[in-house]
Amino acid sequence: MIADILKEFNIPARHSGVSTGKHWLKGEGEVLSSFSPVDGKEIAQVQSGSKAEFDAVVAAAEEAFKEWRQWPAPKRGEVVRQIGEALRTHKTSLGKLVSYEMGKSLQEGYGEVQEMIDICDFAVGLSRQLYGLAMHSERPGHRMYEQWHPLGVVGIISAFNFPVAVWSWNAMLAWVCGDVCIWKPSEKTPVTALVCQHIVQSVFAANQVPEGVCNLVTGGREVGEWLTHDTRIPLVSATGSTRMGKAVGSAVGARLGRALLELGGNNAIIISEAADLDMSLIGCVFGAVGTAGQRCTSTRRLIIHESVYDAFTQKLVNAYKQLRIGDPLNENNHVGPLIDKQAVQAYQQALEQVTKQGGRFLVEGRVLEGKGFESGCYVQPCIAEVQNYFDIVQHETFAPILYVIKYKTLAEAIDIQNGVPQGLSSAIMTLNLREAEQFLSSAGSDCGIANVNIGTSGAEIGGAFGGEKETGGGRESGSDAWKNYMRRQTNTINYSNSLPLAQGISFDL
């Protein structure tokens, strides 16, 4: 099946991972081998880029920007609309490849491609709505307004857990804004990036888009460092760990560039005594085990009112007994593998720390072995009873480990929710209107996303996505996130016969 998908997109056993949109460069860097965590088999080899090739890509991007920024925004939007149509055509194949290369369930693979389609639709409408403001001048015969211009070359560093969707969140908005993009995908999932590049190339060729608008440079950490340090790239959007984000933010800030950071999460759901426990269970379990706990919005902590603690934790334990773990391309399974054995090792170390720091497991965790688990990347989702101040609870472990914590008052629950370094997603399950409003108030959740009666995991593209504190403060996707990809310009026009100065200043010659 995967061989047929690769053939569909002209992906040979070894493929260059460097492209300027119309042409594929040789790929003179290291060879990246993409192995599926599903069965441990090699998917393909990708020739990553050298520093010389990276510089050639940046030069091509700079040249393309000079033309692309002059295309009318609705015309750029039409090109993005066609990308959305191409993704609809290839949704099944690309979704299966996402599932196989990353390890998420097939439905989540399809869902990720659907996110790409949705952001294309959003961007098409946005291409006719890049609005500025008009202001009244204090000087007679003057008009003031602001407008937004394309920023330039946008660097995009994406993570393995959403190998294509988060790139599209950035690229589609950047393109309708008139920017050009250089994509550095995760070295753990490079093949899906090759497929996306092929899809976009075909659409761009049909519309005579200049070479250098859509660029790809695969590789390891060094490619990310080239992007972050390059003064020719005014904006770097990076998705990944807090550790990585601090390095990116520091490097980009040192050259006074812009960094759009989407980093770690340590997301909690408060289960109120006024919650619908059966409905809450669905959101909690999917949030904790979906994508094998490898979403930045995965539910890491449940903060449960003492009056419903025993009843709800028993529901959780019973639900975990029903989880089906295995090949994510089998739609009967709920949980697939972790991305690689390094992630499995981090999972095992976290389990050890839970015990050392005084936690107690309600559902034990372990690495799964035997038929169907030969890749060594499958683990048992687990539940641990802990205290919020444990070091391991304060840390984000990218694995299906769910921590449960008891609370007495809503104020205490909010303090626990906010009492971690990260601030991405949060939720409360309650039918009490006062509790819901308090959770959403300025004295409530300190996260970029706060939900009532839905879980922490997943987000619609219409809203700005991102978080506070060590999550980085960035916002992508919907609302006015497009402003990240543009520069604001204030304009004043004097149509009078004199030149009065502001604030009534007099300067007579």
From TrEMBL:
Domain called Aldehyde dehydrogenase: residue spans: 24-490
Taxonomic lineage of the native organism: Bacteria, Pseudomonadati, Bacteroidota, Chitinophagia, Chitinophagales
InterPro entries noted in UniProt: Ald_DH/histidinol_DH, Ald_DH_C, Ald_DH_CS_GLU, Ald_DH_N, Aldehyde_DH_dom, ALDH7A1-like
Subunit and interaction comment: Homotetramer.
Protein name according to UniProt: aldehyde dehydrogenase (NAD(+))
PROSITE patterns reported for this sequence: ALDEHYDE_DEHYDR_GLU
Active site positions: E262
Gene3D superfamilies recorded: Aldehyde Dehydrogenase, Chain A, domain 1, Aldehyde Dehydrogenase, Chain A, domain 2
